[in-house]
Write a structure and sequence with these properties.
Layout: E1 4-9, H1 16-25, E2 31-37, H2 48-59, E3 65-70, H3 74-81, E4 85-90, H4 93-109, E5 114-119, H5 129-137, H6 148-158
């Protein structure tokens, strides 16, 4: 039976921190589905389809990885995709507290799905999509924090 993992997130936009997690989990699972959250209760800079497109462009058809958007409960989406694992990256203690609550609820909804946590590399521990958007919007540079194609899209959005 194939080990399928869901790596969910808003990815608004994807950062090199996200890409580092993807690179590290490629060897743990047979198939990875990068699940772009299309939550209608949240506001995003990029549409779900734009975020999916950006990720696909950056990954350049990596084998064993699919990218798509989803709405609704993550556990239900994982069930639909036949995934037994959810992957989450942790940067700080505050991330853990939030993720711990989510994991407990997900286990209540489906105890068969396991959450796997990866600590971010120290070089990305301060990095978030929100910080990246603010830096670019204010005319700053983001060397080695986001792919060039993502930086270009951000600059286009803010100009």
């Amino acid at each position: 039976m194939a080990k399928i993992a869901i790596y969910p997130g808003s990815f608004d936009p994807i950062t090199n921190g996200h890409l580092d997690i993807i690179k590290r989990i490629k060897f743990l699972f047979d198939k990875i589905v990068i699940a772009v959250n299309d939550n209608p209760l949240k506001s995003f800079l990029f549409t779900a389809s734009e975020r999916v497109e950006m990720i696909k462009e950056v990954l350049n058809d990596s084998s064993g990885i699919e990218v798509e958007s989803f709405r609704g409960l993550l556990v239900r989406y994982a069930e639909k995709r036949g995934a037994r694992f959810i992957v989450r990256g942790l940067r700080a203690l505050s991330d853990f507290e939030y993720e711990f609550q989510m994991d407990l609820m997900n286990r209540k909804l489906n105890p068969q799905i396991e959450t796997v946590y990866l600590m971010t590399r120290q070089s990305y521990s301060y990095l978030s999509s929100s910080i990246i958007k603010e830096i670019i919007k204010l005319g700053g540079d983001t060397p080695s924090l986001i792919p060039d194609s993502v930086k270009k899209r951000l600059q286009e959005k803010f100009n």
